[in-house]
């Protein structure tokens, strides 16, 4: 019986450690979370905002839906009118532009088909 009471007594005691170790570990995890997840996402958001602000008439753009066209009009309300070919124009929200393509991309795409 003495062995069991000693084993029970030793397991019921709380281990004494550095009280700051938990705080330090939480700060380290917080820094890892910030530098691995939050900061890159903020950078992508900032770059996309800069791209949206730089769109102007005549740019060739690719939308998130896969459409490629020339910007024929930029409105102040956040929409752009994009001409897909000589007869088709589409109005889309500026936020759905995925990339501004180099000049001549549409010409190269249509000649390769």
UniProtKB/TrEMBL annotation:
Keyword field: Cell membrane, Membrane, Protein transport, Translocation, Transmembrane, Transmembrane helix, Transport
Transmembrane segment boundaries: 20-38
Localization (cell): Cell membrane
Domain of life: Bacteria
Main location: membrane
GO biological process: one example: protein transport
Membrane topology term: Single-pass membrane protein
The keyword Transmembrane helix appears for this protein: yes
Pfam (any one): YajC
Entry keyword Secreted: no
InterPro entries membership: Preprotein_translocase_YajC
A GO cellular-component term linked to this record: plasma membrane
PANTHER family: SEC TRANSLOCON ACCESSORY COMPLEX SUBUNIT YAJC
Similarity field: Belongs to the YajC family.
Annotated protein name in UniProt: Sec translocon accessory complex subunit YajC
Organism (species): Hamiltonella defensa subsp. Acyrthosiphon pisum (strain 5AT)
């Amino acid at each position: 019986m003495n062995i069991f009471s000693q084993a029970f007594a030793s397991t019921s005691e709380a281990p004494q450690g550095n009280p700051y170790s938990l705080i330090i570990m939480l700060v380290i995890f917080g820094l890892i979370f910030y530098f691995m997840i939050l900061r890159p996402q903020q950078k992508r958001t900032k770059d996309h905002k800069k791209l949206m602000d730089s769109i102007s008439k005549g740019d060739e753009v690719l939308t998130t839906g896969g459409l490629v066209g020339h910007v024929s009009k930029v409105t102040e309300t956040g929409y752009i009118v994009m001409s897909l070919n000589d007869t088709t124009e589409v109005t889309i929200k500026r936020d759905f532009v995925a990339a501004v393509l180099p000049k001549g991309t549409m010409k190269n795409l249509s000649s390769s088909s």
